[in-house]
Sequence to fold (212 residues):
Amino acid sequence: MRVNLEARAASAEQRRLRTRERLLDAAERIVADKGVEQASIEEFVVAAGVSRGTFYNYFPTATDLLNALNLRVAAHLDDALDRLSPAGRSPAALLALSLHMVLAAYLDDPVRGWVALQLAHSRAPRVRSFEARFAALYVEGVRQGQFREIAVSAAWTVAFGSMRMVQRDVVAGAATPVEAAQVIALVLAAFGLPYDEAERVSRDEAVAARRI
Fold:
């Protein structure tokens, strides 16, 4: 009897997880198409094929769903960035590789790329894991003499403000990967690298990102 109860509980949990993912999948499609502000709970439940009551069982508000969607998109990138090996790479090279990998991930999945852009312009909480990665790289770059010693928050704004714009243009087809590499080179130059070196690093890491 105990085994049957455990199996039943496990089956119920699997159904619950599938329903939650169905809601997030629906939200991802709608947010990519219409934007955060125009999306509604009614559209989420219709697209997911669930009742409004079921929606509230998982997400008390639309904001809760968008926050969960933000974390899911971030986790996808975190998984990719976790595969990076710092061996033999300077902080500047590792930062360039990380930025190129983010762009590559969104080019491979444009819908998710649009969702990330929509969420970045919304009130969804910022994903602190990205900021922690960036801060560690920047501090190490300062220690090694590659980057200027400025507030990490200011450096974050320069890097991710620039990346948000080029990500939008690349996903929309309004900018090429070559132009994206130039933007990343400009970010590195703003941080303290001579531009010729920044351009070389960005170009090399763009190639490396496509191989990972």
User: Anything to note?
Assistant: The mean pLDDT is 85. Residues 20 and 58 are 7 Å apart (CA to CA). Residues 2-34 form the longest helix (33 residues).
